[in-house]
Amino acid sequence: MIKRVLVTGAQGFTGHYLVELLRQLGHEVYGLQADIRDLDALTAEVTSVNPTHVVHLAGISFTLDGKDINIYQVHLIGSENLLKACMEIRENLQKVILVSTSHVYGFGNGEPLDEDFPVAPRSHYAVSKYAMECVAENYRDDLSIIITRPFNYTGYGQAGRFLVPKLVSHFKQRLPAIELGNIDVARDFSDVRWVAQVYRALLDSEYEGVVNLCSGRAVTIRYILDYLQQKTGHEIQLNQKVDLIRKECLLQVGNHAKLDAWVGIKPYPFESTLDWMLSGESI
């Protein structure tokens, strides 16, 4: 069945891949144009498009903690505005996907984090996302809502201020040195193409509730550096900067059992993601 999908943040990193995938599958896809902080404009556009499915990707993805005063306006107020607008078309609306973050778990305890792990957000970014989750509970009686908690993911086209694109870029350009913090922290990385496939599958699913988006495998920054050196044959000097060393846990990895049960799409091996980013091919 052809879906009419409204995607917020359609021009962003994840949105680009999701919109392309959905259109390839023959669905009608609309990228939200209104500012989600403007309830009237947002409601007018949502009712005009009258989507059967909504994916809410829009957000502030990179901020020094506390430096962007819009983070609550966008993640909390903007998301509730979207839910209010969705209430106007709820008879036709089959699924709403809201994107939260694995940062709501805080540092964790080194064990694979599942959806029942206690939340302990430690940054304004994480708090604003968890506040969105809490507000969304008020709409569950009327809307079919899935809240995803993505762990780290990357791919070709991600902005260079993020860690993995920064690493790949330095090796592709064969730069002599790189500035990093602690390279022995281990994180759960996924591929943006896989993330897009998961969102597509979740739109088709009958499920509601909270689900992790993760690979279940953690790799260290040191491992990524070694892999990129091996693939490119380029040695790079590491300059560790104290101001880049954050107060954070050494290991954070997700439990993907629930996601496997819901969609069963096998994650890409992270090495294949790095190979793809090195190749410079967009798809």
UniProtKB/TrEMBL annotation:
<dbReference type="InterPro" id="IPR001509">
    <property type="entry name" value="Epimerase_deHydtase"/>
</dbReference>
<comment type="pathway">
    <text>Bacterial outer membrane biogenesis; LPS O-antigen biosynthesis.</text>
</comment>
<keyword id="KW-0456">Lyase</keyword>
<dbReference type="InterPro" id="IPR036291">
    <property type="entry name" value="NAD(P)-bd_dom_sf"/>
</dbReference>
<dbReference type="Pfam" id="PF01370">
    <property type="entry name" value="Epimerase"/>
</dbReference>
<protein>
    <submittedName>
        <fullName>GDP-mannose 4,6-dehydratase</fullName>
        <ecNumber>4.2.1.47</ecNumber>
    </submittedName>
</protein>
<dbReference type="GO" id="GO:0008446">
    <property type="term" value="F:GDP-mannose 4,6-dehydratase activity"/>
</dbReference>
<feature type="domain" description="NAD-dependent epimerase/dehydratase">
    <location>
        <begin position="5"/>
        <end position="211"/>
    </location>
</feature>
<comment type="similarity">
    <text>Belongs to the NAD(P)-dependent epimerase/dehydratase family.</text>
</comment>
